[in-house]
Each structure stands twice: as structure tokens, then as C-alpha cells.
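Re: that backbone. C-alpha cells:
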């Protein structure tokens, strides 16, 4: 903390020395898209002829303070035509800008995952920004454009298992990613067991991934932040677009409520594989169900020159059922009410009220013995963020965040003939508070420094029973707490520091250090990310997880910025890591704490990326070498062992070729080391049954995974008020039989021998979709 205070004092003193006390004024405004009114995030506003510039924030707002004089502002953003504005500055001025999309020239056909955060001058490391325009041609499973699956093609980001949208970022588990939709946490960002993500690309404006060095306004997870922003809605004209694929359809409607002042957005998506099942005459087929749907909606209102109000929401649901025997449905609901207010030309405020809800319902009917399970997680959240543009060299952010968590692990109800007693597991409650401050300081022509801190305060609350536990997991004592009574409070300061040094006009080196604390934990015995995996909050036994990550990187642009190369290395130490005991019973356990063990972890690696950003051929080649391990007393004889998400090598090759004005061809190839997995070391007989013996946690490897995906998009019609296109391709083009799971069984003819059985989910999967817009 002393270091942060010293940096702040130094930055202000140096600024006072460099700029004499002459009259200064502020230019502020919002960068928007001409023709739609959408705010443009992270647009660059520079002063021509001077090494001065700022970036628009997450709502398009910018502010820059200059002495009296005449200036030319250049406003630019990736994918948009730059705009020049001449200004005579003698008092504060507020301007509104409207950028136009770049023309459809071949040299502008950059549809890659453009990493706008990988700027040479900026301090931010390990960040990627995606827009739906940039991912539309990346081939993915079933042809459904998916931002999370596109992120998996970048260095340091891996899928948790084949075909799924779960992320493992820099050796972290899937629950260590904070996934936000318009600031609302999404606890299960997957449809159909992970084969689709919850995010409909038609409703999404921007996606930002922070793999390390995340700013102080983010917290609560150890590995990454995935910040997804919905479109605001066109405030100029009514537009409708949609698509029809082999297994899903979608529609998106947006337009003005009052032109230039308010707008709406509504987007819906549904799969319809279940409708084909109903066409069968086989009752064992037509009574099955497998589908999902989701809805996105947003309203925004301009309330004068200083205020803007947003109301956005999401609702999605999955349903799986096998006749009357089994049923599982799950889903998320989020809503966000945001108020933007400018107190002055240099002082911006965002106030958010946020609601997030996730639940699943499980139904089992076994020969007339039926029962149901309901599990829920609910958050109420308030967040205040203030941004102060002190001067062109200092941009300060500060604020607070408070979340009230309610977890209902399970309510079990049985039918009259089930023989199951109705049971409710104890609810758990937690209050998670944080205050933060962050300053981005341009210390000199070559040095940029971002420094900040976040103070995390978490309180586990009653009512309920909490336990004192012996090392073997037995309960020594039960402690009773009343409603709202504090069980345990954890206070954790988190330091954020990032530096960049400009070597020359085309290269730089960067370093960062970040602390993170996590109080929401997902307990799972698999790496597949099932909807029934159980979330728990920190309490007197489950302590907050902590991470300390140090990163170093080298960045180089060459051939007039046509290519960029990035090399980043990192080392992450982890505290209070959670794993389950050997033979643990995790499902339906009311005293789950007795099945858990705690220790430390480490993750380290190197990421290399070479990207071609312009021209007919665009794309990238990425390579990651990494390790992720844990050491927990009571597991693997106390020795270090591989985490389930550990994979040593990961390669991705992504290419897109603009054949002509109508055709776009795309391909990607991936290779990764197989997951670490626990496999049996031996077996024995017990009551005539074969029992497998496991000696080492995650001591084996699944087979290596690789595949090739191909796609093509052809423009069918393009008129002033209507356009359409056809996209088609094949996932896993050379039909690689990648292992999803390996099970073991006795050989039928010789039971002394053991057979390994590999299950493969997907061979070659063709896809086709028709998309339109008017």
C-alpha cells in the first residue's frame, strides 16, 4: 500500500513540474457509431502532432484536458474509419462523434480475433478483445458462432473438454473465471452440457478477456475475467436479422423508441432437435427431449446531456429428458440496471444494480420410485465506479462492489412410492464487499505505469449449522448461528501493478503483478462441467482461494503493423486450493466440507502468438507451453500432482482468406496434450464384483487431441435494405476419433484381462446456416 501512495504522489508531482500553471480546458464526449448510435468501446482519441491521447471507456466516454490553443483530434477504432475534428479550445467543450464502418475493401477485411488490448504502448497484459464482426468466420461446432469457443483458440486459453465452451485459462479451473454479461455474473455459461455457450452472438457487442493483470475494478476469481457487453440497440432505424441452421434458429430485432434518445434490443434463440425426435414413431425416441432457448433484451434512454439509463436482461433454459425416467433442466437469469452520469467534463460515474440467478432441477423415476432435486444460487449486487480524468497523463478509477450470495445446495422431494424422505440441505449465505482504486499514469515518453489496489472483505453469514472438523474429516462439534449472524470474516488486500517500456516505435516490453481472491468455489469430480456441480461459499472451514501472478512479455509489430508477435510468460502461485478426498461422496451431501481437502498450487508457462492483421489472408498461429499442479496433504501422498486441466502443449492455427467480394474461406487446426486423468493401477474382486484400485491422482494422460475445421461463407444478396448469406462447413474435417472419456471393463472371455473403452463424441460434423438482415 505504501508503494501505491508513493506512485500516486510521484505521478502528481511530476505532472505539476512538467506543465506550467496556464489556462487549461477539457474536451469530453462519447464516441458512437454513425447510423446506429451504438457506443464504441476503447476508441482512441489522440491530438495530432503531439504524443497525447486517451481511450474511450466501457460506455464510449472520453475526456482530455489541454492548454488554450487550436488542435486537431483524431478519433479511431479497429474496424472504423478515422475521424478528424478541428477544435479551437478556449473553454470546456463537449463533442459527439459518429464513426463509420470501414468499406468492404479487401485490404480492410480483418475478421480475426483482433487483440486491441495488445497495444505496444499500453500497460495491459494478457488481454483479448473480440467483437461479433471479428469472429463470424471462425468455424466452430455445429456452425453456431460462439465467442467462448473462439477464445479457446487463443494462447493460454483451453477448453475444459472436447466440444464444450468451458475455459481453462493459464492453468486455472473453469470456476476460476469471472464471466460477466452486462456486469452480471453468469455461473454456468453453457447450453447442452457445454456444446453451446449462453451468449447469442447477435446480441453481443464486445467481449474482453483478461488472462492476467486485470484492472482493480475486477475481482472475485483467480484466473481470468470474461467481460461480455450486449448491444445497446439501434437508435436510428429498425433492423431485423436472424439465421436458420441445422439444429437452431435465431432472431434479433432492434430499433429506436425515440430517435437519437432511446432504443431497444430483443434477441431470441432456440434449438429444435427435439422437434425432429417427435416425428419418430418409436415411443422410446419421441418422448425424449433435448433443447435450449435463450432471450436477451435491453432498453436504454438518454436523459439529458449528463445522464443515460440502461436496463438489460437475459434468460436461458436447457431441458434434457429421457421419456418419464429422467429429466434435467437448468438455466440462468440476469438483469442489470445501470446509470451513467457525468458530474463534469472530467468526472464519469457508473452505478449498477445487478441480479443473477442460476438453478437446476433433476427428476428421477426408477420403476415408480420417483424423486426431484432443486438447487439454486442467487446474487444481489450493487456496484459504483468513478472515473476521473485528472490530466492527459493520469486516469483514476475508484469504486466499491457489494454482493449478497444465497446458495440453496438442494431440496429433495420424493413421491408417495419413492421411499425418499423430503430433505432440505442447509442454505448458505455470504456478503462479499470490495473497494478499489486504480491509476493509469504515462510517466514519460517511454514508460507507462498502471497501479492500484483492491480490498476484498468476505463474511460468511448464518443462519445454519457450521462445524469443527478433525483432520480425518469427522465432525468434532456443531456450531449454531442465527439469521444474519457473522460466522467468519476474511479481509484480503490485493495489489495490482503493470508497467510497459517502449523500446522503439514498433516494440515494447511489459511486466505485471496481480493478487486475486476467490470466495465462490465449484466442487466437481469431473472436468466436464456438469450443471449439477455444486457451488459453495467460503466459511469457517473453506477458506478463500488466493493467487499471486507475475507476468513478463515482449511485443513487436513489423511490416507496417501488418504482423504482430507477442511472447508472454507467467508464474502463478495459489493458496487454499480445494480438492476432494479419495472416495468422496459429493452428490447430495449435506456436510460437503467433510469430503474436502486444502493445499497449495502453482501454474506457469509461456505463450507465443504470431498474427497477420491485414490483407486477403488474416489469422494467427499460437503456441502455449504450461504446467498446472497441486500439493495437498492427504492426496497423492502429499506430493505435487497434476491438476485435471494440466496440458503441456497447445497449438492453434487460424486462417481466413477473402477470396473475393462474395466468398470468405476459413479454417482452424488445433492440437493439445491430453488432459491429466486418474486411471486404475490395479483391480481386485469383492463379492464377485471387480473393483478398480487407483494409486495416483491424475497420474495418467488422455490421448492427444487434434482436429481440423473448415468453413465457407458466400454473400447471396446485398441490397440497400436487405442482405443474406450462406455459411457451411465441417467440424473435425478428417474425422479424428478424439477420446472424450475412457472406461475399463473385464474382458468377456478372460476376466483376468482388462479392456480400456474409449468414448468419442464427435466425428466429422457438417453444418450449414442461412443468415439474413434487413
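Recovered sequence:
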Amino acid at each position: 500500500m505504501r508503494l501505491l501512495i508513493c506512485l500516486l504522489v510521484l505521478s502528481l508531482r511530476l505532472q505539476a513540474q512538467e506543465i506550467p500553471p496556464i489556462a487549461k480546458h477539457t474536451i469530453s464526449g462519447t464516441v458512437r457509431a454513425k447510423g446506429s448510435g451504438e457506443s464504441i468501446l476503447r476508441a482512441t482519441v489522440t491530438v495530432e502532432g503531439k504524443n497525447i491521447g486517451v481511450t474511450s471507456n466501457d460506455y464510449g466516454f472520453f475526456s482530455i484536458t489541454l492548454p488554450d490553443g487550436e488542435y486537431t483530434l483524431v478519433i479511431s477504432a479497429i474496424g472504423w474509419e478515422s475521424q478528424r475534428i478541428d477544435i479551437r479550445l478556449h473553454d470546456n467543450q463537449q463533442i459527439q462523434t459518429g464513426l463509420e464502418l470501414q468499406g468492404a475493401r479487401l485490404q480492410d477485411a480483418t475478421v480475426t480475433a483482433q487483440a486491441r488490448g495488445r497495444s505496444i504502448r499500453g500497460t495491459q497484459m494478457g488481454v483479448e478483445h473480440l467483437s461479433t464482426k471479428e469472429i463470424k468466420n471462425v468455424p466452430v461446432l455445429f456452425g453456431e458462432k460462439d465467442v467462448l469457443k473462439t477464445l479457446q483458440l487463443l494462447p493460454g486459453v483451453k477448453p475444459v473438454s472436447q466440444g464444450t465452451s468451458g475455459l481453462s485459462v493459464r492453468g486455472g479451473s473453469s470456476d476460476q473465471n469471472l464471466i460477466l454479461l452486462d456486469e452480471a455474473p453468469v455461473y454456468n455459461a453453457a447450453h447442452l452440457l457445454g456444446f453451446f455457450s449462453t451468449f447469442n452472438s447477435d446480441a453481443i457487442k464486445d467481449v474482453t478477456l483478461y488472462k492476467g493483470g486485470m484492472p482493480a475494478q475486477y475481482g472475485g476469481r483467480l484466473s481470468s475475467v470474461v467481460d461480455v457487453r450486449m448491444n445497446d440497440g439501434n437508435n436510428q432505424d429498425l433492423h431485423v436479422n436472424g439465421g436458420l441452421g441445422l439444429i437452431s434458429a435465431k432472431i434479433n430485432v432492434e430499433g429506436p423508441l425515440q430517435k437519437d434518445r432511446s432504443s431497444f434490443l430483443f434477441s431470441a434463440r432456440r434449438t429444435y432437435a427435439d422437434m425432429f425426435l417427435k416425428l419418430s414413431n418409436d415411443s422410446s425416441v419421441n418422448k425424449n427431449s433435448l433443447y435450449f432457448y435463450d432471450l436477451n433484451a435491453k432498453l436504454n434512454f438518454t436523459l439529458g446531456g449528463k445522464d443515460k439509463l440502461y436496463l438489460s436482461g437475459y434468460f436461458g433454459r436447457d431441458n434434457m429428458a429421457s421419456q418419464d425416467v429422467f429429466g434435467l433442466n437448468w438455466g440462468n437469469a440476469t438483469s442489470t440496471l445501470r446509470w451513467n452520469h457525468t458530474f463534469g467534463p472530467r468526472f464519469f460515474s457508473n452505478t449498477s444494480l445487478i441480479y443473477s440467478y442460476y438453478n437446476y432441477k433433476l427428476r428421477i423415476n426408477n420403476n415408480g420410485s420417483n424423486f426431484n432435486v432443486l438447487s439454486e444460487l442467487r446474487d444481489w449486487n450493487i456496484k459504483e465506479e468513478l472515473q476521473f480524468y485528472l490530466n492527459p497523463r493520469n486516469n483514476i478509477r475508484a469504486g466499491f462492489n457489494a454482493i449478497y450470495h444465497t446458495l440453496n445446495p438442494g431440496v429433495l422431494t420424493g413421491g408417495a412410492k419413492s421411499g425418499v424422505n423430503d430433505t432440505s440441505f442447509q442454505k448458505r449465505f455470504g456478503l462479499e464487499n470490495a473497494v478499489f482504486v486504480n491509476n493509469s499514469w504515462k510517466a514519460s515518453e517511454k514508460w507507462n505505469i498502471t497501479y492500484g489496489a483492491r480490498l476484498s472483505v468476505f463474511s460468511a453469514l448464518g443462519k445454519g449449522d457450521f462445524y469443527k472438523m478433525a483432520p480425518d474429516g469427522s465432525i468434532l462439534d456443531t456450531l449454531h448461528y442465527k439469521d444474519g449472524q457473522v460466522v467468519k470474516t476474511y479481509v484480503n488486500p490485493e495489489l495490482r501493478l503493470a508497467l510497459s517500456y517502449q523500446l522503439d516505435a514498433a516494440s515494447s516490453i511489459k511486466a505485471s503483478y496481480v493478487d486475486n481472491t476467490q470466495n465462490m468455489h465449484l466442487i466437481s469430480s469431473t472436468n466436464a462441467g456438469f450443471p449439477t456441480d455444486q457451488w459453495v461459499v467460503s466459511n469457517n472451514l473453506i477458506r478463500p482461494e488466493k493467487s499471486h501472478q507475475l507476468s513478463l512479455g515482449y511485443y513487436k509489430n513489423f511490416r507496417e503493423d501488418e504482423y504482430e508477435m507477442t511472447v508472454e510468460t507467467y508464474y502463478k502461485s495459489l493458496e487454499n486450493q480445494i480438492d476432494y478426498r479419495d472416495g468422496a461422496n459429493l452428490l447430495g451431501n449435506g456436510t460437503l466440507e467433510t469430503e474436502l481437502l486444502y493445499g497449495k498450487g502453482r501454474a506457469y508457462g509461456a505463450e507465443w502468438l504470431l498474427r497477420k492483421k491485414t490483407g486477403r489472408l488474416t489469422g494467427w498461429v499460437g503456441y502455449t507451453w504450461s504446467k498446472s499442479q497441486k500439493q495437498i496433504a492427504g492426496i497423492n501422498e502429499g506430493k505435487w500432482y497434476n491438476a485435471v486441466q494440466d496440458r503441456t502443449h497447445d497449438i492453434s492455427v487460424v486462417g481466413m482468406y477473402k477470396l473475393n467480394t462474395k466468398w470468405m474461406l476459413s479454417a482452424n487446426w488445433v492440437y493439445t496434450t491430453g488432459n491429466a486423468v486418474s486411471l486404475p493401477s490395479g483391480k481386485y474382486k469383492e463379492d464377485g464384483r471387480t473393483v478398480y484400485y487407483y494409486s495416483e491422482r491424475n497420474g495418467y494422460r488422455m490421448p492427444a487431441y487434434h482436429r481440423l475445421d473448415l468453413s465457407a461463407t458466400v454473400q447471396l444478396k446485398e441490397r440497400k435494405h436487405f442482405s443474406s448469406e450462406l455459411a457451411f462447413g465441417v467440424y473435425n474435417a478428417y474425422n479424428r476419433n478424439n477420446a472424450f472419456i475412457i472406461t475399463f471393463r473385464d474382458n468377456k472371455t478372460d476376466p483376468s484381462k482388462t479392456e480400456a473403452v474409449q468414448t468419442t463424441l464427435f466425428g466429422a460434423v457438417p453444418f450449414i446456416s442461412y443468415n439474413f438482415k434487413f
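The chain has a mean pLDDT of 85. Residues 306 and 344 are 8 Å apart (CA to CA).
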